[in-house]
Specification:
Layout (H helix, E strand, L loop, with lengths): L4 E4 L3 H12 L4 E4 L4 H5 L6 E2 L1 H9 L4 H6 L1 E3 L1 E6 L2 E6 H4 L5 E3 L2 H14 L3 E3 L3 E6 L7 E6 L2 E6 L2 E4 L17 E16 L9 E4 L5 E7 L2 E8 L10 H11 L2 H4 L7 E15 L2 E2 L2 E3 L5 E2 L7 H22 L3 H28 L7 H14 L3 H11 L5
Parallel strand pairs: 1-2, 1-12, 2-8, 5-14, 12-19
Antiparallel strand pairs: 3-7, 4-7, 5-6, 9-10, 10-11, 13-16, 13-17, 14-15, 15-16, 17-20, 18-19
Helix pairs in contact: 1-6, 1-9, 9-10
The structure holds flavin-adenine dinucleotide and P-hydroxybenzoic acid (PHB).
The site of P-hydroxybenzoic acid has 9 residues, from loops.
Length: about 400
């Protein structure tokens, strides 16, 4: 098979890019390691910034998001048992975020690819990238016992943190920056009414908690747990009881519990790979960078990669102008590092750090009291949470 752009990974980054390029007459194929059901079984992001929502509309995939997604003009931070409101609308020039689950968004992207007859290969085994430094790269994968070869102009690595694309960049070219946090988030999805119409981020001596949602009948809650914990260590009762202990009393009193329909643990990590391109390969999304979910930046940062790459590819195919592709890594990384900074800051502000000295605990308390005593500090928080411009 020959295509213009071969995209590795059928997560949100890969699907969105292939849909946008297809609409501009650029031929792509998406190679996904797992089945569609497996990809749609993952429960991840919930908060989308405006730039992402606009890109979904441009990709002709925004209809259900606009109908069913909820606009949130603010959220709460609770500490010392008190709820503080962060008015995003007021502090970010009228901006807001959309609460719409990554699972639904991925489903919309799959449906759009199907509608346009997009080429999508599931269960693509042993994907392997070749001749990336040449003008004629190719990708191979196994389909049962058969090896399939795809020749292309460009390869996009949108295959997440554990994918094969980043690993195809020679070690002496790639530089990796990483911070691993000594805890994870235990997440529970339940068919219950959310405890609050807006998200609540909780800082507590027992550890962080987050009250989020997917809709008015589907709640998503998280608690900070040690990295050694497994989801099976936590019965539903134990989860609800720990969550309640971390919430302000007035919120705990309103909490409606029910059976969990999904329970998983996500370790927290900050990671950036530089450069984000090598020869004819371009990395996008979690394949190149990871943030702890505290600032809700991961998927939103993938969106800015897709935006830059999409425009650079269109310029290259329309007018032969390759300057956008040449500048892609530098341009994407400038925004990536700002999202890294914000996610790290939110994580440091809200979590309990087991090995921290008392001095650092006092700084953390001071950071929090400063935040709610300064409109300038709230503005910084709001501007980053709604997403910096692309
Ligand atoms: P992925 O979603 O990881 O997709 C990569 C795809 O590539 C996968 O389908 C994978 O199966 C496939 N693949 C892997 N290896 C191969 C291979 N060798 N060959 C072919 N295919 C391969 N972000 C936000 O912006 N807002 C939030 O509120 C938010 N909340 C989050 C909550 C949690 C608990 C977690 C864990 C993450 C959250 N994120 C959030 C981050 C967000 O989910 C990710 O940033 C997002 O999934 C990145 O999309 P992606 O397409 O780049 O990568
Ligand atoms: C979620 O709803 O899954 C979610 C929301 C906000 C975050 C992280 C995750 O910061």
């Amino acid at each position: 098979m020959r295509v213009q752009v071969c995209i590795i990974g059928g997560g949100p980054s890969g699907l969105l890019l292939s849909q946008l390029l297809h609409l501009q007459g650029i031929d792509t194929v998406v190679l996904e390691k797992y089945s569609r059901d497996h990809v749609l079984g993952r429960i991840r992001a919930g908060v989308l910034e405006r730039g992402f929502a606009e890109l979904m509309r441009e990709a002709q995939c925004g209809e259900r998001m606009d109908r069913e997604g909820e606009i949130h003009n603010g959220f709460h931070i609770a500490h010392d048992g008190v709820l503080h409101h962060v008015d995003l609308h007021k502090y970010s020039h009228g901006n807001s975020v959309t609460v719409y689950g990554q699972t639904e968004l991925t489903r919309d992207l799959y449906e759009a690819r199907d509608r346009l007859g997009g080429k999508l290969v599931h269960n693509a085994a042993d994907v392997s990238l070749h001749d990336l430094a040449s003008d004629a790269p190719h990708v191979t994968y196994r389909d049962g016992g058969r090896e399939v070869r795809i020749d292309c102009d460009y390869v996009v690595g949108a295959d997440g943190f554990h994918g094969v694309s980043r690993k195809s960049i020679p070690k002496d070219v790639l530089r990796e920056y990483e911070k691993v946090y000594p805890f994870g988030w235990l997440g529970v999805l339940s068919r219950t009414k959310p405890v609050s119409p807006e998200l609540i981020y909780v800082k507590h001596d027992r550890g962080f908690a987050l009250c989020s949602m997917r809709s008015q009948v589907l709640s998503r809650y998280y608690i900070q747990v040690p990295l050694t914990d497994k989801p099976d260590d936590w019965s539903d009762e134990a989860f609800w009881s720990e969550l309640r202990r971390r919430m302000p009393l007035e919120v705990a009193a309103r909490l409606i519990t029910g059976p969990s329909i999904e329970k998983s643990i996500a370790p927290l990590r900050s990671f950036v790979a530089e450069p984000m391109s090598y020869g004819r390969l371009f990395l996008a999304g979690d394949a190149a960078h990871i943030v702890p979910p505290t600032g809700a930046r991961g998927l939103n940062t993938a969106a800015s990669d897709v935006y830059y790459l999409y425009h650079a590819m269109v310029a290259r195919y329309r007018t032969g102008d390759g300057s956008g592709l040449n500048a892609y890594s530098q341009k994407a990384l400038a925004r990536v590092w700002k999202a890294q900074r914000f996610s790290w800051w939110m994580t440091m502000l809200l979590h309990r750090f087991p090995d921290r000295i008392e001095y650092e605990d006092r700084l953390q308390q001071t950071e929090m009291s400063y935040l709610f005593s300064s409109e300038t500090a709230l503005r910084l928080l709001a501007e980053n949470y709604v997403g910096l411009p692309f």
